[in-house]
Design goal:
The chain is mostly beta strands. The chain contains two helices and 19 strands.
Length: 283
């Protein structure tokens, strides 16, 4: 299992926080090695009106390059005249994974987190928008914490973005590698909470002990499953005092989420909708 935790702060989330143009018109801003190719993200600022971010693969055997993704943004559109010139749209790669014949690239772009899936055989691609924070004019700084993990056939992620002294958004979800679909959660206020009398459950969850059994007992207590229902713990992400826990019912046919509030020793059952995310259309 591989996990990545990124902390992006202050100047790199919204357009009014601008960094100055350097002397280089073409920069390599990301590089990652794979067995038979090298992945680059190249920023091309040679055009006066448009900035380009080109995701490029260079074959190690033939030394040929192939641009698989281009982001192009008008400099005029993403600059505010009273802020001065030299602004760029920040676009960077968080991490990329090759899984069989597909390349999965996670981007952090202008306050958004995206997933780009490229088929290395038939050269087709899909873009998914995981989430982000709407940019607003404000004198306060912005930040983002991106925590995602790959385990077995899934990517699990939690993203917290917002103002350092204001509104924040928490985005939680998972990507099913085999089925090639992205699931995001919309949390609501009609959660059912179940309180336990001691901290034993909280400690067991913290230590990843008997989580499947604890989930099953909580669901049986609420008469949400039968005694013979198979429950399999998959993964958990801890954000603050909450644990987001994925589990499967009936031998992986149904994947669900349950939350645990460690500050109150309560299960939070339900209270969310599972959204199969749409593909992301570029502006």
């Amino acid at each position: 299992m591989k996990s990545i935790l990124f902390f992006i702060i202050l100047f790199f989330i919204c357009p009014y926080n601008m960094y100055s143009q350097n002397e280089n018109k073409i920069d390599t801003i990301y590089k990652q090695e794979f067995k038979d190719f090298t992945l680059f993200l190249i920023r091309d600022d040679s055009n006066e009106e448009v900035g380009y971010w080109k995701t490029t693969l260079v074959d190690k055997n033939t030394n040929t390059s192939n641009i698989i993704n281009i982001d192009a943004y008008s400099k005029e559109h993403f600059m505010y005249s009273y802020r001065g010139g030299g602004a760029f749209y920040l676009n960077n790669i968080i991490e990329a994974y090759r899984i069989k014949n597909k390349l999965h690239i996670f981007y952090s772009t202008w306050g958004k987190v995206k997933l780009f899936v490229f088929d290395l055989v038939d050269k087709t691609a899909k873009n998914y928008l995981i989430g982000g924070f709407p940019c607003i004019l404000s004198s306060g700084g912005h930040f983002g914490i991106i925590d995602f993990h790959k385990t077995n056939d899934f990517f699990y992620f939690s993203i917290i973005v917002g103002q350092t002294a204001g509104e924040k958004v928490n985005i939680v979800g998972y990507y099913n590698i085999k089925e090639d679909n992205l699931h995001l959660y919309n949390f609501m206020d009609n959660s059912t909470k179940w309180k336990f009398d001691s901290k034993e459950t909280s400690e067991m969850i913290e230590e990843n002990k008997d989580i499947s059994l604890n989930i099953k007992e909580a669901l049986i207590e609420r008469e949400l499953i039968k005694d013979n229902t198979e429950i399999k713990y998959l993964f958990q992400l801890k954000t603050g005092h909450l644990s987001y826990i994925w589990y499967a019912e009936h031998n992986m046919y149904i994947i669900r989420l349950i939350r645990y509030d460690h500050s109150a020793n309560k299960w939070i059952i339900g209270g969310y909708s599972d959204i199969n995310a749409d593909l992301y259309e570029k502006d």
